Amino acid sequence: MHADVSSLRPVLPCRLEFKERLLKEHIHILGICGTFMGGIALLARELGYRVTGSDANVYPPMSTQLQAAGIELMEGYHPEHLEPAPDCVVVGNAMSRGNPLVEHLLNVGLRYTSGPQWLSEHVLQGRWVLAVSGTHGKTSTSSLLAWILEYAGMSPGFLIGGVPGNFGLSARLGGSDFFVVEADEYDTAFFDKRSKFVHYRPRTLCINNLEFDHADIFDDLAAIQRQFHHLLRCVPGGGLVVYRHGVNAIDETLAAGCWTPTVSFGLGDASGADWRAELLEADGSAFRVHPGPDDSAEVRWQYCGDHNVENGLTAMAAAKHVGVLPGISADALGAFKGVKRRLELLGRPGNVAVYDDFAHHPTAIATTLKGLRARTGAGRLIALIEPRSNTMRMGEHRAQLAASTRDADLVHWFQPAGLDWSLEDVIASGDTAAHLYTDIDALVGAVSEEAREGDQVVIMSNGGFGGIHRKLLDSLEGKLPRV
């Protein structure tokens, strides 16, 4: 089905004209295998650039996705990677002073820019940008929004910090004026400490939620709110801000200055939000959306949890801003195939459901477990958690970790290298049965021995977790009877 958005489209310069011109221009990307920078590489290649890149960790799935696009990858950060000199070096925010390639490009005077700045100048100019921001849910909501627009026949471009199942890739230029971008508040580059999202200049802005995170670059919540305020200053008066109702940190940020119409979303009749969701199933797998007093649409999909319902509401409200009716959006959500590493079902060996989830903040851990808890039948809910983010390594949120797992029946905590404080205090302060491990194989063995038919096991980490996903699936296959 197609939505009538012809009257909403801004003037878009013809990108095809300079695609021919750029065929021989060469950009080199530092940190190319990160999801965001890998997306930049895919967009640049699609525009006609010759693209190469360096990274310390060149491995699938990003490496195979990039190589399939004709992009040359180089392991490590060696100065010879920039010889002969490219036309421009695009620097990822994981790069810092002291990195051999960073020092080389500065010493020889190569032209360089950041990923967000490059995106702004070469992809987003003249397009209707729909940006999804917030502490949690950015990747899922961006994927939902891009899919709704695709389902409505709009052929959007997108750059998402994950791989949506409906597309199979993290970035594309698209065939229309519309571009969906995951808008991260993390800093831009070693030479630009503004948040990434201030470069994007969205016309439609979503703010899912707002909490303290990224303690390695922000001193407190107020510092994050300041960056969101800067973002709000860039949204035009003819745009729209979609935000979660009843979040003090968001309300305070909007009160500091907002020059754009707003639409709020929330769960339940008492929320007071403009867009409301009424749960039809306790686990969130079915809900009714009320975008107005005399309008509604019903969603039935394969996802669970209040947080996913809110993500769906956000995407539907943003899609309405570009002309997609709620009924079409509801149908699109029913056909949504999810996102890699966002409560992704990896398999059911012996009828034990094993999920992979990116949750690494207490709020994300709690909401994910709450959603699975509502779906649990006779089996148990077992969580395997690796707190490895920069914020966790600094000890932030440690006091909230035990409470975040209250919906699990059993928690296996993994103490990663570099975590300078012990998880033993977390275990001692919680009511949920919990164990601590420092060895991946021992953890896999323990879960394999105790798992039984009907259990749900969720692996939670924002990293590779020592390859535990494949190891656990293989171990369960070998020990549990087939069903």
UniProtKB/TrEMBL annotation:
Task: Please state every residue range assigned to the domain named Mur ligase C-terminal.
Answer: 341-463
Name the needed cofactors: Mg(2+)
One Gene Ontology term of the molecular function aspect: ligase activity
Q: Where does ATP bind?
A: 134-140
- Family note: Belongs to the MurCDEF family. Mpl subfamily.
Q: What does this protein do?
A: Reutilizes the intact tripeptide L-alanyl-gamma-D-glutamyl-meso-diaminopimelate by linking it to UDP-N-acetylmuramate.
- What is the protein name given in its UniProt record? UDP-N-acetylmuramate--L-alanyl-gamma-D-glutamyl-meso-2,6-diaminoheptandioate ligase
Task: Write down the species.
Answer: Candidatus Marimicrobium litorale
Designated gene of the protein: mpl
